[in-house]
Specification:
Blueprint (H helix, E strand, L loop, with lengths): L3 E7 L5 H4 L12 H6 L1 H10 L5 E4 L3 H12 L7 E3 L45 H18 L4 E6 L1 H12 L3 H4 L9 E7 L2 E9 L4
Helix pairs in contact: 3-4, 5-6
């Protein structure tokens, strides 16, 4: 039975100024300070990730910069394909808002572990329910296109939660209870019989 394995890695921590706002799909850069301090993590990832994998990043700079840092730490340089379907949740008009300004704009209570509720749709944006549908469709398409291969995806916290939710067949509110830390690794596999979750939010061994 063929196995298509997705190695889902959340991008590195972004710069301090960006962390002060809801950056969502804003094209912010990673923190130069953390890039230097976390070099052992990049080296660990470079040694851990499969050598024959296809590599995918999203259109946002922080995923490409994270991939480049892993390559610089010892992983052989390879082509980085861009996949829009694995981008972070679109927060629409709320992107760029200071965190303290968001609660007054919410129609529903925020989730305990996410700035907004699972069904909340920001003006001009998408809900977490929408993200699960989008990411799930993307994973199915990639699994069909690259059946039996390893795929390294440098993505985002919301998108990786959505990927696990799709694999498990759970709803958006449950997905938001998952912790997905920067530079953590989540692995899901696609077989003919369905999806299997191997690991979630695994930290690098250093």
């Amino acid at each position: 039975m063929a196995c298509t394995r997705f190695w889902l890695l959340r991008h590195a921590i972004v710069d301090e100024a960006s962390r002060a706002v809801l950056y969502g799909r804003m094209d912010v850069d990673i923190s130069a300070e953390s890039l230097a301090a976390q070099r052992p993590i990049y080296q660990s990832l470079a040694a851990r990730l499969p050598r024959t994998a296809r590599w995918i990043v999203t259109p946002l700079l922080r995923t490409r910069r994270t991939a480049e840092a892993i390559h610089a730490a010892g992983y052989p340089t390879c082509e980085l394909a861009v996949e829009h379907g694995l981008t972070e949740q679109d927060l629409g008009a709320w992107q760029g808002l200071p965190h303290a300004d968001l609660p007054a704009r919410l129609a529903d209570p925020a989730h305990p572990f996410w700035p907004l509720g699972a069904a909340e749709i920001p003006p001009g944006g998408e809900s977490m329910e929408h993200v699960i549908h989008r990411v799930g469709a993307t994973l199915e398409r990639l699994a069909e296109a690259y059946a039996g291969q390893d795929i390294v995806c440098i993505s985002h916290g919301g998108a990786i939660r959505a990927a696990v939710a799709h694999a498990l067949g759970v709803g958006a509110r449950a997905a938001l209870h998952l912790s997905i830390q920067n530079l953590s690794l989540t692995v899901v596999e696609r077989f003919d019989a369905g999806w299997r979750v191997v690991t979630v939010n695994e930290g690098a061994e250093i």
